[in-house]
Amino acid sequence: MTDSKLLRIVVVNSLVPADGADAAAIERAERARTLRISLLEAGYNILAALPPDARLQEQIAHLQPDVIIVDAQSDAALKEVVSATTNAPRPIICFSEDGDRDRMHAALEAGVSAYVAAGLSADWVKAVLDVAVARFEVDRKLRDELSETRMKLAERKVIERAKGLLMERHRCSEDEAYRKLRRLAMDKNLKLSDVAQRMIDVADLLI
Fold it and tell me: Which part of the chain has CATH 1.10.10.10?
């Protein structure tokens, strides 16, 4: 696992309360400032601190952070962060001052790696990031394994169909059809599934 101290982090939260902001907004901004200070004190590299209303998808695509920490109070910001990481997944950590279970579950189902319901203090920020990165890596491995399994199943179906075409055309057994298919793949220096797909494509054109 990568040393979490080497991670490049983007923080999405309130930066400075607007003029005339209410007490809740001022409190959120202060909590956000405390979070950033905690990360810096713990030795982390904050690549950028972005307000929730920034063009987050563009910013994230440009900055290419390793981890994104986002204020869970901004549902719109969280959705944009999740959307920005769809094609390039990375750990997302949500922090919040409330422990709303529905919001927590929704965030985790959306792809958040860790949901912290009490902010991030300097004392335990490393543990939180380590857990988030570890969970992300486990989830990514499971996704990769699932994708590979689905791909192998799809390839097997293609090969089975191609064998059926050969058996029908050459009046041969399944083993003989497989040997013909494998020999053709070796002759053309192609994967067995690629040769099978080409054979199916040609057969479909002739129908």
Answer: 146-206
Domain 4-123 has CATH 3.40.50.2300: yes
Q: pTM, whole model, 2 decimals?
A: 0.67
> 161-191: per-residue pLDDT in tens?
999 999 998 899 999 999 999 999 999 899 9
CB atoms within 10 A of CB 32: 25
* Residues carrying CATH 3.40.50.2300, the chain: 4-123
d(CA 110, CA 66): 18
Distance CA 163, CA 177 (A): 5
